[in-house]
Amino acid sequence: MESADNVLRLLLLLSERQRVRVSEAAEHLGVARSTAHRLLRTLGARDFATQDAHRAYRPGPAFERIVRTGPTTQDLRAKLHEHVVELHRKVGETCHLMVLEGNGARFIDCAESTHVLRVGTRVGMLLPAHVTSGGKALLAELSTEELGDLYPRNLPASAGGPAVDRITVRRQLATVRRKGYATNLEESERGIVAVGACIRDGSGRAVAGIAVAAPSARCPRSRVPELAREVLDAARAASATL
């Protein structure tokens, strides 16, 4: 019973502070650091907590599913699938729906292109958010403090590339906020170009990203503005649905 009580107290502490270190948990519960660490690791194993880059614990996906007032991932997929399909119909390329998960973009739905040369489905994959168009669009909605917690140091590039300077990423996100959409110009994978935008719920909060991805051989940079218009129209329609 004491262990169960401590776990519940930790969940309340995570809810109140949103960021808890092992030492803070130990002091709050009046237990040894080793005990607090074990309890937090147990919460982490069940996705109720997750560690950030500073090794502090934050509410995890399972915790957020319980307390979230907005739509769940399953809700988003069910409600927005028609918009992903419609965007695919208009542009003829692979279209994805994604959500932000920590500092990653989780792909949750897809309408795949029928071209022989195409971008394949990424459903189920978790890619670094800062190298995907939909992930960038969602990162651009975060505060400076939230971004600092997710990325206390330079950001790792995909495919073993060099680290990405945080200042450069902040500038990119400022451009995303100004334009309303984000691009991925062969950043997540060589030969792929993508354009993404945020989908918002009734309160205006960004809850998902919608993106179109195409082989760079069929999508020169001159085509990006055209795709951006279609993606922004799709994002507005999807937001209206929510």
Summarize the structure.
This protein has nine helices and eight strands. By secondary structure, it is an alpha+beta fold.
Spatial order of the strands in the main sheet? 5-4-3-8-7-6
Morphology: elongated
Number of strands: 8
According to CATH, what is the class of the largest domain?
Alpha Beta
Q: What is the number of helices?
A: 9
Task: Evaluate the radius of gyration.
Answer: 19 Å
Distance between termini? 41 Å
Helix content: 40-55%
Mean pLDDT: 88
Unreliable segments (pLDDT under 50, ≥5 consecutive)?
none
Structural class: alpha+beta
GO molecular function, one term: DNA binding
Pfam family, one: IclR_C
Protein name: Transcriptional regulator
Keywords: DNA-binding, Transcription, Transcription regulation
Outline the structure in words:
Keywords: DNA-binding, Transcription, Transcription regulation. InterPro entries: GAF-like_dom_sf (IPR029016), HTH_MetabolicPath_Reg (IPR050707), Tscrpt_reg_IclR_C (IPR014757), Tscrpt_reg_IclR_N (IPR005471), WH-like_DNA-bd_sf (IPR036388), WH_DNA-bd_sf (IPR036390). Pfam families: HTH_IclR (PF09339), IclR_C (PF01614). The structure is a single chain. The protein is built from nine helices and eight strands. It is of the alpha+beta class. It folds into two domains: 66 residues, Orthogonal Bundle (Arc Repressor Mutant, subunit A), CATH 1.10.10.10; 169 residues, Beta-Lactamase, CATH 3.30.450.40. Strands 5-4-3-8-7-6 form a six-stranded antiparallel β-sheet, with helices on both faces. The chain has a two-stranded antiparallel sheet with strand order 1-2. Strand 6 and strand 7 form a beta hairpin. Helix 2 packs across helix 3. The model has no long low-confidence stretch (mean pLDDT 88).
